[in-house]
Specification:
six-stranded parallel sheet, 11 helices, three-stranded antiparallel sheet, 2 domains, Rossmann fold, alpha/beta, single chain, binds 2'-O-acetyl adenosine-5-diphosphoribose
Length: 254
C-alpha cells in the first residue's frame, strides 16, 4: 500500500474511509497479525508459533492436566516476551477510531493486552488474557503481571494450581462475552477484520454472521484469507501501516 492515500491502488481505502466517516455502529475483529509488528509472533504462517510448537502439547486442557509445568513454562516465556513490547501504530489507530465512531466494539482473539495498552476502551478479549490467572480449584480470577511467574503458581485462597485465564482448544468461550459479541455483530453497519487468518471458530464466523445481518465487511491483511471473498473492501497490507493510512484518509474527508 502506498503512503499517498490518493493513488488508484488505495481506492478501497478511500471508499472505506468515506463510509467510516458516516457509520454509527462498527465492530472490529483482530487477531495475532495486529500484534506482529510489535514483535509478538503469530500462530500460523512463517515464524508462527504453531510451526515450532504443537498446540496439543501446550494449549489444551489435556496438555495442562498432563504436564502443567511445561504449559506454564511456555506461557511464562510468552508473558516475558509480551512484557517487553509496545503497541504499534495499528493498535493506536484502532484506539483512535473508537473515538470517531459512536458505537464501537473491538473484539480481539489476542491475549496480549496490547489493545488496552494502546488506549482502546470497549474491548472484548474473547480468548481471555495472558495477564490473568484463574484457580483450577476455587475458580478465583486475578490479574498477575509478574514476569517471570513462580513456576508453578498456586492459589493464595485455596492452594490449588493456577492456570492462565485463556481459552484453550476444546474449551468453550465465555457465554456472556459471546452474547455481547453477537449483539454487536447483529447491529453493526461495518465490520473491520484485521490480522486474523479466519480459521479458528467461533471468531472465524463472526464476519459472516455480521454480513448475514447486513454489515459490510472490510479486511486488512497482507495475505488473502477464507474471509476475503466475502469482503466489500480488501486492504492488502500490514495493519500497522494500513490502519494509520485509513485514519489519515478519514481526517482528510472531514
Ligand atoms: P494466525 O496466526 O492464525 O493468523 C495471523 C494472520 O495475521 C494471518 O492471516 C497473517 O496473514 C496476518 N498477518 C501477519 N502479519 C500481519 C500484519 N503485520 N498486519 C496484519 N495482518 C498480519 O492468528 P489468529 O487468526 O489470531 O487461539 O489465530 C486465531 C487463534 O488461533 C488464536 O487466538 C490462537 C490460535 O491458536 C488460541 O490459542 C485458542
Amino acid at each position: 500500500m502506498s503512503d499517498n492515500p490518493n493513488t488508484d491502488k488505495n481506492r478501497p481505502l478511500i471508499g472505506l474511509a468515506q463510509t467510516l466517516g458516516q457509520v454509527q455502529r462498527l465492530v472490529a475483529l483482530t487477531g495475532a497479525g495486529v500484534s506482529a509488528e510489535s514483535g509478538v509472533p503469530t500462530f500460523r504462517g512463517p515464524g508462527g508459533l504453531w510451526r515450532d510448537f504443537r498446540a496439543e502439547d501446550l494449549a489444551t486442557p489435556q496438555a495442562f492436566a498432563r504436564d502443567p509445568r511445561l504449559v506454564w513454562e511456555w506461557y511464562d516465556w510468552r508473558r516475558g516476551l509480551i512484557a517487553q513490547v509496545s503497541p504499534n501504530p495499528g493498535h493506536l489507530a484502532l484506539a483512535e477510531l473508537e473515538g470517531l465512531i459512536p458505537e464501537f466494539l473491538l473484539i480481539t482473539q489476542n491475549v496480549d493486552g496490547l489493545h488496552r495498552r494502546a488506549g482502546s476502551l470497549n474491548v472484548l478479549e474473547i480468548h481471555g488474557s495472558i495477564w490473568e490467572v484463574r484457580c483450577t480449584g476455587c475458580g478465583g480470577l486475578d490479574e498477575d503481571r509478574r514476569t517471570p511467574l513462580p513456576l508453578m503458581p498456586w492459589c493464595r485462597n485455596c492452594g490449588a494450581l493456577l492456570r492462565p485465564n485463556v481459552v484453550w482448544f476444546g474449551e468453550a468461550l465465555d457465554p456472556a462475552r459471546l452474547q455481547m459479541a453477537h449483539e454487536a455483530l447483529r447491529l453493526a453497519q461495518v465490520m473491520l477484520v484485521a490480522g486474523t487468518s479466519g480459521v479458528v471458530q467461533p471468531a472465524a464466523s463472526f464476519a459472516l454472521w455480521a454480513k448475514e445481518y447486513g454489515a459490510r465487511l472490510a479486511e486488512i491483511n497482507p495475505d488473502p484469507t477464507p474471509l476475503t471473498p466475502y469482503c466489500d473492501w480488501v486492504l492488502q497490507g500490514k495493519s500497522g501501516e494500513v490502519l494509520p493510512l485509513l485514519l489519515t484518509a478519514m481526517r482528510q474527508n472531514n
